[in-house]
TIR domain-containing protein
Amino acid sequence: MTKLEDAHQQIEKLIAADKVEAALSEFRDALAGSDAEVEQELIQHQAALAKVTKERRRGLIDVSREEQTRNRVRYALLDLLGEWFAGEQSEPLPPAGLAAHRTSASVPTVFISYSHADLGVAGRISAALESEGIPVCIDSKNIRPGEDVEAFILRVVAESDVVLSIVSGDSLLSPWVGMESVLSLYGEALNGGHKLIAGYLDETFLDIGFRVTATEQIDAKIGEIDALFPVYIEKHLDTSDLNRQKTRLFELRNNLGKVLERLRNSLVLDLREPMWAENLPRLLAAIKASEQREESV
């Protein structure tokens, strides 16, 4: 592994561990003054993080506002990381994950985001897209051995042209699927276009009371984690695993409204078996349209 590749992987690991400030510092060290424009962007991101941290400590903003900024910076940093390191290499990194499936610059690549309760449907959709020549990334096939789940999500959402979200009552309560959806929305805001395409397996997301019901369920899970802290402390156990689980649940809680608003205000295709044959061509057209928008930017 070259020094450049090693730095790339180290920064990705720091981002996945939510050590964004350390990732920014590591990136600036890797630059070593070679790119003033990229360094200026990193400095701006550092300033943005310092500002929201100070405002949260002073009680001027709540934790959710701070997390929104951190998520935006994480996605922007991943995007910048991929572009800069690719440009610096004399030879490209060995293809991994979604990048290994790119068959043509004109073919959009799709990451399928789903709840494991919906694995059967995700597999059917993956097979249908691949039969149409569309490269697909799905965790059941593409996660690297030993790779951290959060690192995998950050990597493939940044690499993909489209995130196809399979929406169900189960997926909307999954912290991982929530993270994938929110990162996709931030990617749209940063790069333009429509990175997130959604299809549904049930109509739970249309229920006006769903957000309240879902929040109650999330709060119950947070309460279960809170109850474990005294036990961990009594037994002198490290609480980092509890903290990460709790952070993911809070992120899901804070961002659920944005995800539901996007789903309710856009066309979401019915992916259930009775409508599958009719809606598959529409799904393919939406994926190919995303590639055309990319080229026009």
Remarks:
- The CA atoms of residues 62 and 269 lie 35 Å apart.
